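Deliverable D5.2: sample structural annotation.
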Amino acid sequence: MAVDSQLIKIFTTMSEKYVTKSISTVRQPSQSNLLIAASGPKILSLGLESNAIVSEWAPVEAVTVEANGKEEDNENGERPAKKQKTSTASPKAANVIKLAVSPGKRHVVAVTDDKFIHVFEQDHGKLTELSQRAMPKRPCAIQITPDDATILVGDKFGDVYSLPLMPSEEGDVAAGAAPEATPQPETQFKPSATNLTVHSKRNRDALAAQMQQKNFTPRKEALKFEHKLLLGHVSMLTDMKYVRCEKDVQKRGYIITADRDEHIRISRGPPQAHIIEGFCLGHTEFVSKICQVGGSNLLVSGGGDPWLGIWEWWPEAKLRRRLTLPEKMKVPGHPLAVYGIWSGRVDLGSGEEDIVVVACEKVKALLILDRTSVEQDGPGICVKLSHNPIDVAFDDRSILVSTDARQSSADARDQRIQSLRVQKKTGELQAEVDVSPRYIKALNEYSVQSESIVGDKELESLLYGVADLRKRRDQEGPEAEAEGGNGVTADADD
């Protein structure tokens, strides 16, 4: 099977309880193409031609300390030591929420919901963990730069970091070992002022409050591995892309970021990320997704507005047009929220072309746009699906779509990953569902087994939540950023 050299990612349900958050194809010259998949806490690689699982990675099983029944004194009159054994009630394993493959296809980077970044070496499908690093906040976007040297990480609290793909030995966390926090000694607080030096009533009240403070607030430890803070948003970060423009003779890299406050910022890439080139302004609601169209200077954005923004992000940021979302992309009673925007190169029969696919949260349809629809005033086509689309990937002539078929019959769940055959006839786009490819059948039949249990509520939160970014009209400014939307308080540990 011919595979697009671009990174391909899919969300899909491979069991009734677990979600494969991402799938990436790895095209290897003179070798069988691979599919790297993350389902629940596990990551596996599949041979697309052999339909065989080449490698499977799972986190180290947690060990708990339990008393071995009745405590009795040993021969020395001392209490026996507690035995370590695997808990019968399996501890909750961290789910993989992001997955990326390096442009050179030699490394895989995964993000788990416990805020760890895992780096794997990929050798003929075998995955070997090289490192794991704990971020201060949960990443919401991740990308590997074209030189295969740097990981760019954006967290929802607004910061974008750069990390070396291959960490240095000093200060980094070795694979398989979690970083241990250095215990902070409790320092007794002692004000420098006294009753002899304070005279006004206001200052005496302040001194009395200080005297009641027992300890200092412990400082948060700095990250123990090499990293650089590139830029930050005051608002909640929602998406990040590292891009280059094929028209730029300097081939300079840029970081485009989006946030909850309707902003799209264009910054230079490292090491000049502090330089802001411009903003794409015009959205009136949150921006949830941004996507570069191929390697062009066109950017598509979407979020809580009923339209998509088509921007020329280079050489100067300007809005080219607003593309109104069709009625088929809206659900009565559910606030409109753009769930995903993807771009890929597909053979439409008359030649290869960059197309854009758009999904809205909990809407059983996809909007497909060709280059003409993006650049000019074209409507594209809206394809109806049987279930909510979760992620999209691109084959040479097809669009792979993963759907949320958890509540469907067994037969329907066997077709939860589908292929849309896309072609252009007489200048018009056409798409039809094709579930015959052998590799899709292998994916649909595979089931990830795990003793850990994930609840429906947790899985729902893992899959959805974009609409919660919408602010209440009476909730603006800093107060809004303390909440996750619609009165849902954001977790300070995320």
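Annotation notes: The first strand starts at residue 12 and ends at 13. Residues 201-211 form the longest helix (11 residues).
The annotation will be released with the project's public dataset once the embargo ends.
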